[in-house]
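Internal tracking record. Fields below are filled automatically when a chain is submitted to the structure queue. Please do not edit lines marked as system-generated. If the sequence contains nonstandard residues, flag them in the REMARKS field before resubmitting.
Queue: standard
Priority: normal
Entity type: single polypeptide chain
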Amino acid sequence: MQYTRLGNTGLIVSRLAFGSMTFGSGEGAFGSIYKVDQAGADELVASALDAGVNFFNTADAYANGQSELMLGKALGERRQDVAIATKVGNRMGEALLDQGLSRQHILASVQGSLRRLGTDYIDVYLVHRLDPYTPLEETLEALNYVVRQGMVRYIGFSNWPTWLAAKAVGLQREHHWAQFRVAEMYYSLIGRDLEHEMIPFAQDAGIGILVWSPLAGGFLSGKYTRENPGGGGGRLTGFDIIPFDREHGYDVVEKLRQIGERHNASPAQIALSWLLSRRAITSVLVGASKISQLNENLGAAELHLGTDELAELDKLTEPTAIYPNWFNSAIYDAPVRAALEKQG
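SYSTEM-GENERATED OUTPUT FOLLOWS
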């Protein structure tokens, strides 16, 4: 297993983190995700621990709290050996108050998460989404409060735009509040939007990036093909929220297969290894509903792609530059750049 610091902190976490979104049961679209019972959860968590994983991720809204409850039970006495991240913001009940990022909901939710996880502190507490109805200062002050009270060690955000995260960091510094240290964001070979703004901002601000859905909902596992677009009833047939060009995606999967043949590795392992090669990425979330799937994903930590192979994948999936990025890239002073590059 590979390890690194979580952003600009002293918290050492595994670069492959375990996501427990599959824990619990549900109906409808989520029925294709929530399908692991407690016995299965115990087995998956034990296998992850044996592989050296020490970073576990969940959310209060996953299976309406079942995921937190099951993860806490599965960790048991090993809780002190690991870092747990959970999230707040999505709806947890029918009442209007039972959602969002208000002080009221954050304080109530952190208590609920602590209870379900069976712990007296949360290592990483993330706001799960935007809340356009709550002042940003209220959210940030509430997060600072739960840190100062010892209920939470570090805070972060998920699915926020860069401008809002930057504004939040400015307010946190101005008021000497607890700082964001991690961002849980979607990033994959067929979804590299993060590179436009978020990654440069996070690196500058000392914020580690935790990647969710590194296989684009399972598409990059190779299960989905032009001949079998449904993947034999895979997750994407019931829960498909990530937009991407399917035809281009099939080309990317084919390249993953080609590179995988050189390493005796699966397309999923190649896709995960590419993510681990990105310096800005702290940890990559891997979830599973069965041991074989988890062990395959964890195997990516031992896989090292060649420089030429990484370059192949970079070129094939390079995102189109957006304004003003393409303009600024074109007007750097060439003599200064050349002089500085000579110095390393």
